[in-house]
Amino acid sequence: MLPLSSTVHCDTQVNSSFAGSALKTVRNAVATPESELRRWRRVFDANAKAVVNGEKYLDPENFVNAIAPRGDLSKIGRAQFAILFRVADTSRRGLVSWDDFTVFETMLKRPDADYWIAFQYFDVDNSGTISLDEFKNVFTANVSSSAIPFDFDCDWVKLYLGKKNGTRVLGYNEFTQLMKGLQGERVRQAFQYLDTDQDGFIKPDQFKQIILEIAGHKLSDAVVERLPTLCTLTPGGRISYSEVVAFHNVVREMDMVERIIREATAKSKDGRIDQSDFLNHASISSRYSLFTPMEASIIFHFAGRGSAERRLALVDFAQLLDPRWKAPHEEPEVKSVSTGMSFLNGFLQSAYNFVQGGFAGAFGATIVYPIDMVKNQRSTVVGQMLYKNSLDCARKIFRNEGFVGFYRGLGPQLIGVAPEKAIKLTVNDFVRGRAMDPETGRIKLIWELIAGGTAGGCQVVFTNPLEIVKIRLQVQGETARVEGAAPKGAAHIVRQLGILGLYRGASACLLRDIPFSAIYFPVYSHLKKDVFHEGYNGKQLGFLETLGSAAIAGMPAAYLTTPADVVKTRLQVEARKGQSHYKGLTDAFVKIYQEEGFKALFKGGPARIVRSSPQFGFTLLAYEYLHKLLPYPWEDKPPQVQTALTSRQDDISRIRARNALKILLDVHGDFGRRAARFTPPFVPAVSEKQA
Q1: Is residue 27 very low, low, confident or very high in pLDDT (cuts 50, 70, 90)?
Q2: What is the reported pTM?
Q3: Which segments carry the Solcar repeats (predicted)?
Q4: How far apart, in whole angstroms, are the C-alpha atoms of residue 660 and residue 303?
């Protein structure tokens, strides 16, 4: 077995010259932006510990720290990134200089960086081609002696080989295609090697051995442990070649499997899918069928833990999609403690939401209060016209009372709106949380309507007294000026109305707020999920998307409940001479319809939209951001499936470094774990300085 640093070709001097000139050309030709250079320099200086003749260098360990992804969602060991050290160490000194590091980082910017780096690793003598001997030496040097043997003289390998100076070699393009199909050929050869009686079947433990060698790093421990159960899909207790190939195809196309599962579960009404849903969505997601029925059965067999017929949620597929998935610990003592604390935890979470809802409601009400002030003014009193329209009303309020006039009665409004919105948001979240599927995070539409309606009904009990006081404070300003009467305070209005009077118009208030919330919260939720795709591949809504969802949801809710709002306002406003008196809810509806027509029931509808839409927009925006910035520490959230497909924490160079390593790991799952023995030592003395 030849070491990786040995020279296979006889034209060593020519090849060394070729490598040196090529390296110089790359360094001179690549124009790297200064910002990237500063970032690379910062990473290099932070990790370079070895110093030789006053210059910093990266040794293998610190090189791994510089290029390995942080929090990588795979089973690739950090030590295996040392494989890439030999590619970066072009001078074979055992250390990577600053110039070497910039060349390596520039190499990672290539769109084909993963295959390019793999080619560099196999091209031991830097000749620009890979001989069959080089390929064999690198392959066997990184695979243990106990691995299933691979026949390099097979016809499949020879199809990719050309000739250079009488030696069979691989060019770069041929190498990329060979590496892409290498696992498939290894599966074929491994099956033939283990199928000693040539009957087309192998034992379950032999199937597990094959998969561990070619794809063990791509599977979670739970899936690896259940690999032998593949034999239960068909009678006989053994595994056929077609089943081995089908499983390998699933692993090879795991990114596409994940995309299809995420999209199909997102579009499903209950957040769950079966094999038919998977195959149907796969058919409409591509031009040709990507997966066979056998492959779909394998996916659902391992995701369903042997129950392939039931409908599965995204969280059920996590063990198949996430190589680092771990089974949750089900300890009886922990579970009993959790059950005992669930009531207290739920109470504390509701109290926490109540406080945040109060601040959010006060914020939204303050922004739109001037609109509310103008809307609640009567245009006439005792046959005298006070305001021609809303703009005229705003001008006269500003002229007579100044800017402060727009916020007359804001104090009682804030005292009322804070608990009003707090109750509404807290009750809605509470009911939705109890009705939500704990695995999918989905809630049925009927429960969305019930949650919203219950929230709207609960708020009326507390807010109706405060709202009637607010309205009477708002309308008395201009009429008091016309009639020459002094404005009355909130305490006087409360004494005048009494306990029962404070709930005047409560039936109309219920008739308005229950359907309003029943419309608003489901529309808001579906706008976020179905229009702006919140949660899809880990997406979080931005400022404008959240504000837009909350504001748009308020439009139909506000307009469709306008008749109830008109009746409520008429019942709560103190009638004066020349104005109609209403005995109750039904009487008010009838008199308004008879005296003013059907349109009067929707009078102020546009203004109500103008007020309610931005108010709820800013209220929900504040509520959502309070949840993000100050989340409840012990909140029970639906389980999230985080994989390399949804993780975007690392920069593109670290991601490409990981992908380059994955190409090499396709040779063998343990590729690189013994890479240290092939890194030649650096001869000059090295002094270590800690950063």
Answers
A1: low
A2: 0.69
A3: 348-434, 443-530, 541-629
A4: 28
